[in-house]
Amino acid sequence: MSGRSVTSKVLALLDAFTPASPELTLSELARRAGLSLPTAHRRALELVEWGALERGPDGRFHIGLRLWEVASLAPRGLVLREAALPFLEDLYEVSHENVQLAVREGLEVVFVERIAGRAAVPVLTRVGGRFALHATGVGMVLLAHAPADVQEEMLSAPLQAYSRKTITDPVRLREVLADVRRCGYAVSDGQVTVDALSVAAPIHDADGAVVAAVSLVVRADNAQPSALAPLVRAAARGISRSLAGRTAAQA
Amino acid sequence: MSGRSVTSKVLALLDAFTPASPELTLSELARRAGLSLPTAHRRALELVEWGALERGPDGRFHIGLRLWEVASLAPRGLVLREAALPFLEDLYEVSHENVQLAVREGLEVVFVERIAGRAAVPVLTRVGGRFALHATGVGMVLLAHAPADVQEEMLSAPLQAYSRKTITDPVRLREVLADVRRCGYAVSDGQVTVDALSVAAPIHDADGAVVAAVSLVVRADNAQPSALAPLVRAAARGISRSLAGRTAAQA
Q: pLDDT band at A113, cuts 50/70/90?
C-alpha cells in the first residue's frame, strides 16, 4: 500500500459527504469511498479521533467541527467573507433581499456567503454550494473576467438551461460577457429561476484581478436592475478596498 | 510506514495552519507537521491535487476552497448557521451590535457565526475561533448546560483572567452558572474585554438538549442586560424551533 493511496483514501472518505448526504453509515461511507468495510472503519475512526468526522447518537458519521475550524482559514472562504461582511450587511439592510458572495472554482461558482431575510425571494443557492458560471449573476461576472482558456472551455461545451430564460447560445453569451466587462455589472434576469433577478459586480484584489463577485437577488417582476447596480457596485468596491487592506496588513 | 501514521501525517499537515499562520511555506509546513521535507512535499502536493490545500503565487500553501466546501457540511457549522441566520439578522437589525452564534467543543466555545456592523463594539472573537467557556456569555450558557463531568473539569482547573472582571473563583462561577440555568440567559459584563457586555441564551435541539448559544454583545457603559435578555431569548427560541424543524425534515 503506497503512501499516495492512503492519502487518497482519507480524502475519499471526506469526499463521500455531499449536501444531499451529510450523514452516512459506515457501510455507505465505505461504498462511496470505494473502500473495504474494515479499511473504511479504521480510517474513519482516525478521522473521528482528530475531529475531522464526528458520530451521531445513531452511529452515523458526519463532518466534524474541527475540520470546519481548520477549513475556516481558507482565504477564499471565511477570510474573504470577513472582509465582505459589513458591506453585505449594508446591502441586506437597505434591500432585505438575498445578498450573495461567490468565487470561481474551475467552471463553477461557489457561494461563500448568503444573507437572506425570511421575506426574500427563494433562491436555489446555499453556502458551500456550486452552480454553473453562465446562469447566475455572480457567475457571469466571474466568467466575464476569467482567463481566456476558461471562457473558451465554458463556451465550447453545451450550456445547461436552468429555466426558459437561461442563455444557452454561446454567441449570445459571449456578447453578454462583453457587456458585463463594459458596464461593470451583470444582470441575470430569470436565468436561474424565472421569478428571480440578480445584479452582480466584481470584487478585485490589490493587483486588480477579479477574485470574487457580490450580488443582490430580488423578485424579477418589478425589479429595476439599473437602480440596483450602483448599490451592488458600491458594495463591491468597498469589499475590494477592505480586501486589499487586509492583504497589505498581512504581508 | 503504517496506515495510521499516514493518516496522522495528512491531518498534521492540516493542523499546521492556524489563524495566526494561515499561509505557510513548504519548510514551515514540514516543521509544524513534524515531517521531513520530502514527505511533507509529497503529501502536500496530494492535498493540493484534491483541493484541500492551494498554493499562492509566492508558492506558499493555504487551506483550499474544496476543503472549505466539504467542511461546510458540518452540522454544527454551516447547518446550524443556516437555521439561525434569519434570527441573527433580526437581532442585528434591531441592535446594530455584535451578534454571535457558538457551540461547545470540550472546554472551549467555538464561534460559528458573527455578524457585526462597522459601528459595533470591537470584540476578540472570529468565526472558527475558540475561547474558554467561563468568560464569554455564550460560553457561560454552554457551560451551565454542559454534562457534570465537563463542569467539574472546568471548575477544578485554574480559570484564566481575560480582564479584571473575569470570574476566576470557581465557587462564584458555580453560583453564576446556577443563575444562568434559572434565568434562562447569561450576562458577561466586561469579563472578556472591560468595555463589552454580552447577553446570551441557549439554543435547544428537538430533544431539549442545549446544542448552541446565541448572544448580543454591546458596549458595557450604558447597557441594560435585562432589556436585552428578552430579545436574545426570543432569537434563541426561534433558532431552536427552526433547528427542530430541519432535523424532522431530514429524518
A: confident
- Give residue A2's pLDDT: 40
Residues within 8 A of B (CB atoms), A 74-113 only: 74-79, 81-82, 85-86, 89, 92-93, 103, 105, 110
Contact (CB, 8 A) for B130 and B170: no
Domains of chain B, CATH where assigned = 6-70 (1.10.10.10), 75-250 (3.30.450.40)
Greater confidence (B246 vs A176) lies with A176
A183 touches B: beta carbon within 8 Å: no
Tell whether A175 lies on the interface with B, counting CB pairs under 8 A.
no
Return left, alpha or beta for A5; rule: phi > 0 is left, psi -120 to 50 is alpha, else beta: alpha
Place of cell 453556502: A127
Q: B6, A7: Cβ pair inside 8 Å? A: yes
- Give the residue with greater pLDDT, A247 vs B234: B234
Q: Which three cell numbers stand for residue B154?
A: 472546568
Is the pLDDT confidence value at B251 over 60?
no
Cα distances (angstroms) measured from residue A125 to each of A37, A140, A146, B14: 34, 15, 21, 28
Q: Quick one: cell of A206? A: 490589490
CA distance B161 to chain A (A): 25
Nearest to A83 by CA among A220, A195, A250, A209: A250
Residues of A in contact with B69 (CB under 8 A): 110, 128, 130
- Any B CB within 8 A of A249 CB: no
Question: A73 CB near a chain B CB, below 8 Å?
Answer: yes
Distance of residue A114 Cα from the nearest chain B Cα, in angstroms: 9
Neighbours of B127 (CB within 10 A): 24
At B4 the pLDDT is 41
Question: Is this prediction's ipTM beyond 0.85?
Answer: no
In the predicted structure, residue A197 carries a pLDDT above the cut 80: yes
Residue B24 in this model has a pLDDT that exceeds 90: yes
Contacts of B11 in chain A (CB under 8 A): 10, 46-47, 50, 52
pLDDT grade, residue A119 (50/70/90)?
A: low
Please give the residue of chain B at the shortest CA–CA distance from A69.
Answer: B128
DSSP A105-170: ETTEEEEEEEE--TTSPP-S--TT-EEETTTSHHHHHHHHTS-HHHHHHHHHSPPP-SSTTS---H
Q: Do A128 and B74 touch (CB under 8 A)?
A: no
User: Cα torsion for A87, A91, A97, A101, to the nearest 10°?
Assistant: -30
pTM of the predicted model, to two decimals?
Answer: 0.79
